[in-house]
Amino acid sequence: ETRTEGWIAGLQLAALSVQGRTEADVTGFIRAFAGDHRYVVDYLVEEVLQRQPNDVRRFLLQTSILDRLSGPLCDAVTGLENGNSMLETLERSNLFVVPLDDTRHWYRYHQLFADVLRAHAIEERPEQVPVWRRRAAKWFEDSGMATEAIEQVRAAGDHDTLARLLVANWEQFERLGRNASVARWSASLPEAMIRTRPRLALLIAVNTLATDNTNAMTRRLTDWADEAIDALEKRGEIHPSNDGDGTVVGP
Fold this sequence. Notes:
By secondary structure, this protein is an all-alpha fold. The protein has helices spanning 8-18, 23-32, 37-50, 54-63, 71-78, 83-92, 111-124, 129-142, 146-156, 159-168, 170-175, 179-187, 191-195, 198-211, 216-235, and strands at 97-99, 107-109. It is built from 15 helices and two strands. The radius of gyration is 23 Å and the shape is elongated.
């Protein structure tokens, strides 16, 4: 308590870190315990991670990409079927899992813990992080949670899926007044993509009218749509059958 100045997260991490140590090891650990919060968290989380069984450590890293967790969602990300039991184990072990409802269906990681877990995941498995995010996005989409799906594919850099989800759920977002979110998601799409997909460009233009103080960007988007439509007409490709994801022509 003296070393952490009563900082609860630091105390909990320290307690987890000393589990399984001898009395002499614990005494030395406490004596050496120092540093500001950020470095303490990094160090202690690493200590805690190293002491976990391989299956627990792997689960923590894979699911660190999620802002909230459920058994089925974790199963979709990990490709296993132990999500519920693993979350129960983590909660019993006080591994920074916070229940979000009375039925213990949804959980989240303590934010500091999640931040460090994500850093470890990116450092150790950079090629897998986008794969985990795309798996999560698929589960969210299948579960009718479009916003969560878009956030995951955006973080994964999957522009094609982001554009498809944006257009497919456009009416819902417009009805809910999600103009600011749509603007933020649209801003992450490459200009080259928008310029060749007139339906996508026109829908973004509609949103821009609602969020921008000037009409300059709206005019630019409609110009891009005009140019793309002209090019498609010249190639004879203005038909829904040529538009697999609805972002080019649409129904």
